Amino acid sequence: MNIDSWKAEWIWAEGTGNENNIYVEARQSFELTVPFTKALVRISANQSYKLYINGIEAGRGPAPSDLLWMSFDTHDVATLLRNGRNCIAVAAHNFGKDKIVTEQLQGPGGLICQLDVYGADDQGANLLTVASSSEWKCRRSPRWKTGVSRLHMWGGYRELMDVSREDGWECEDYDDSSWPPAEVIAAAEQENSPWPRLVARDIPYLQENLVSPVTVVSAESLLGSIQTPEAQLAADTAEGRGPVVMDASIPGSFPQITYDFGAEIVGYPELEVIADEGGVLQLFYGESLELDLRDTYLLRKGVNKITPFGRRAFRYLKVGVMATPVPLRICDLRVRFVHYPYKDGGHFRSSDDKLNRIWEVGRYTTMVNSQNHFEDCPYREGALWVADSVVMAKVVYQTFNDARLVRKSLLQAAKIQNDDGSIPGTGPQRNAYLLPDFCAHWLFGAAEYYDYTKDRAFLEELWPYIVKLAAWFTEQEDDAGLFANADRDGMWCFIDWSDEIHREDRVTAVSCFYYKFLHTAAALAFELGEEESGNSFTHQAAELRKSVRNLLRIPNTAIYADCLNGDGLSSSITAQTNFAAAWSGIMDEEEISVFLQEYYLKGRLPQIRGAFFYHIVLETLFRYGYAADAVRIIRNYWGDMLDRGATTWWETFDPNLPFSTTPSPYLGHTPTYLEDAVPVSLCHGWGASPTYLLNRELLGIDISKAGHGQVTLRPSAVAEVEWAEGSVVTRYGKISAQWKRDVDGVYRFEAHLPAQMTWKAPGLRDISVSTDQDRVHVRGTVPVHEAAPKRTPLVDCSG
């Protein structure tokens, strides 16, 4: 059976093209009179849709994408069709042209939908096509009120819905004769269309689970009354749930219940409310108890089935009611929790319960931020930031064994490449956010994906983008080959969330990342047989390393200044700059030891507060034999977050601030201090690095070369941990390992891995190997790593 070409057109509600925050409803009825075996709906919208077949919800989407590469979904709807009259109906929403900080959610409103029905004969012939066109009916929805305000400048609008305006428009027996015809915006896949390409969904649909709140934080009557506020909590419901009764019949009363779901979730609240005489219900959301009003419902008399059209991200949900002439009853309150459908993968446990909790919170944070692409924070913006994706990908490799979301996220970043060859730091829609270090991180992520999967088709597809990006980097060089003018207008030289890094002109960390970029590009070129490019990149890298070492290093030291400008080397010296030099290969091993022992571990540099940059710090410490110090940092930095109530990792964190804080715009955890327009993220996947490092480095199962069929067994036993055990799942099967300190003080290690994998065990002593059936068993002893003495800061080198 062949899927027919697109016959559908992009449509929208007439006369709404220049307005913001538009909801439309479109429908078409049709007859089915012959037997059929398959029925597929292909559908997309800018920016979101809900599909109904005969009044039953059949799907929502699409995956966010750039307008030039518009993603579409395919839904099998055969079980929802019937002989006789049928109806296909779509509700869709468009953000409009309002300003948004990350420049996402842009473009005109449009939806495209095509149903193809196939016969029962051997050929599976196409019996019927129902394609969106001017013959469809389409109206501006009467349910959502206009003129509502924005929640903040990173996201969309609040929703204000009049539930009494629901009229059964989704159903097949609805009379739409008074509706206007749809306005055709463009034909499918036309070059001059706002959406010239339609790209089939290339990852599974999101997993959906109904979850209930775990506790009631507060139930405040506020002149009204509340009965049984705990009735909708997660519990044994064998006897059924009773209703929550809320009464706001006293003038001015506003009873409210705040629920805690235990950790951040992403999805769609669903409530069933019986309001015999109507009233108003509002929903407030927050990652912390700084809650924001997002949804308001004008209830109709009787039963109200309530769910927002837009996705929500929150830990706390407050329900408030007002103007209820008689008490209303909340008979059901749950959330349809959505995330990428990872299968059960690896695990980690140790004698240190805090490390175990840190591993699990990182796993969960990554899962919550795994939606239709990797997201940097689902509450604030849900955008596809490059650096966040690269860190979360490492967690996926060591934890989940499903790299399809990694592949998609890397390709989406490539497809919004700028004309000059640079790649925006965020997406998935093209924008002006140019972060030079993120351009390099994108390639690091692509190379790591290739090593993990050996996905040659991916590498071949990406190669033209890599070549173009390399040419852009070359264009940024000064006469010595350094990356220059990094503080120019329109460029955000990020490095890390820190005001202490000086970033003028030739920024050392950027040139260090550029050096690593060139080495990475050379390796990929040789992999593809592009010998000339590989040799050129290798030569460039060697020349750049000389320049960085000669021009950016403080004379007669192993340490690098933050930058070089017209006045010479900056006076500022930061840990971030020097870790960038160590991690990228600019420093040699002796210099790395001097930097770590004499500067970083003695506390002579400003403290790092950004959870993202710690992945570079920790990888460097583990790589050069400072495992105990790495574990100490994990336990202290992330453990302090746990002690302060974190259930997902925060975007940034300063442990020196007062203990009783959760990050907030008012509490100084980021450079956005006292800018209340910037919502601080309490669920940020870029801080999940301990999860992959505990499996890969502490336990010692490194599958970063799994695409080559290789595993490296390199446990890092530390004196503070008595034992560790866990597993990692690969396409070859599960690898499990454990080590523990025996009564004689010796740390003994064993691993069990699929026989078809090759392995090496650097640092493991007294190795013995046995096999049985399709498994290999490796045993040995592990040298213990001792932490450097903890020191207090001696010198502030921040300048």
Overall description:
The longest helix has 21 residues, at 531-551. Strands 11, 14, 15, 16, 17, 18, 19, 20, 21, 22 and 23 form an eleven-stranded mixed β-sheet that branches. Strands 24-30-31-32-35-34 form a six-stranded antiparallel β-sheet. The protein has a five-stranded antiparallel β-sheet with strand order 5-4-7-2-10, with no helix packed on it. The protein is globular and about 80 Å long. The chain is α+β, with helices and mostly antiparallel strands and 799 residues long. The model is unreliable at 791-799 (pLDDT under 50). The chain has twelve helices and 35 strands. It has four domains: 9-201, Jelly Rolls (Sandwich), CATH 2.60.120; 208-339, Galactose-binding domain-like (Jelly Rolls, Sandwich), CATH 2.60.120.260; 347-702, Glycosyltransferase (Alpha/alpha barrel); 706-782, Sandwich (Maltose phosphorylase, domain 3).
What oligomerization state is this entry in?
A: single chain
The proportion of residues in beta strands is 25-35%
SSE-based structural type: alpha+beta
Please give the number of β-strands: 35
CATH topology of the largest domain: Glycosyltransferase
Spans where pLDDT lies below 50 across 5 or more residues? 791-799
What is the number of helical segments per DSSP (H or I, 4+ residues)?
Answer: 12
CATH class of the largest domain: Mainly Alpha
Helicity level: 10-25%
Q: Note the overall shape.
A: globular
CATH architecture of the largest domain: Alpha/alpha barrel
* Total discrete domains: 4
Mean residue pLDDT: 95
Gyration radius, rounded: 28 Å
Termini separation: 69 Å
